[in-house]
Amino acid sequence: MTQLFDDAGLVVPVTVIEAGPCFVTQVKRKETDGYEAIQVGFTEVPERKLTQAERGHLGLLGADKKHPERKQMEKPVPALRVLREIRVSDASVFQVGQQLDASVFSAGDYVDVTGTSKGRGFQGTMKRHGFSGGPKTHGQSDRQRSPGSVGAGSTPGRVFKGMRMAGHMGSQRVTQPNLRVVRTDAEQNLLIVRGAVPGPKGGLLIIRDARKQG
After folding, report:
1. What is the C-alpha to C-alpha distance for residues 61 and 25, in angstroms, rounded to an integer?
2. Which domains does the chain have, with CATH numbers?
3. Angstrom distance (rounded) from CA 42 to CA 40
């Protein structure tokens, strides 16, 4: 995150995102797959870092030594580390090998950003759920951060499902909706949005047009 000054001279908190270049690696149509979607790839890597199945899926396998009559396959996309599928309303406007970058968005657009939140490990109820803890006085000595009672005694005689307790916190898929695009830089594939996005620095994000704009 960083900050920018807008046209009115106000400081705006923003997040700088490297948005691409991404390549369309597969197009799924309703006639053949039952739904409309595209698969996009991100982060170019050496081919040796991919499995044979991954290279075959991307069309990177060359002529087979045992079968020299097989011609060299075309390589519409480079070797990509990350593949993600995104639903679209009409997949016919995309084709394999098409490149997507930050120019897809423009300043003033609203986007939904999806990522994996930072992992916090095992946390208590105060940090995980915002509990206030036990009393700080009246003789108690070791219950400052205790969750307190979790249920009644003989009736119902058990703890209800969904009770907020201590446990693993973070490392979950989170979507931050309605982030306004402040600025774009197509040459460097940078997308600058107002506010924070889920996950740590260098985390993987999925950016879509906002479903609920405004």
Report:
1. 15
2. 2-65+74-117+173-209 (3.30.160.810)
3. 7
Report the first-to-last Cα separation within the chain, whole angstroms. Answer: 22
In angstroms, rounded to a whole number, what is the distance separating the alpha carbons of residues 98 and 110? 23
Average pLDDT over residues 6-27: 91
Cα angle for residues 76, 91, 209 (degrees, 5° grid): 105
Instruction: Record the tokens describing residue 89, joined without a space.
Output: 């309303």
Whole-number Å distance between alpha carbons of 130 and 2: 28
Return d(Cα 116, Cα 112) in angstroms, integer: 14
| Closest residue by Cα to residue 86 from 212, 205, 214 | 205
* Contact criterion met (CB below 8 Å) for 135 and 146: no
Q: Which tens digit of pLDDT belongs to each residue from 40-96?
A: 999 999 999 999 999 888 888 765 554 454 444 456 888 999 999 999 888 889 998
Residue type, 97: G
Alpha-carbon Rg for the chain in angstroms: 25
What pLDDT digit, counting tens, does each position of 124-165 carry? 999 999 999 988 888 888 889 999 999 888 888 999 999 999
Ordered DSSP codes for 75-143: -SS--EEEEEEEE-S-GGG--TT-EE-GGGS-TT-EEEEEEEPPP-EEE-HHHHH----S-SSTT--S-
Minimal CA–CA distance to 184: which of 17, 40, 71, 72? 17
> What is the rounded CA–CA span in Å between residue 122 and residue 148?
18
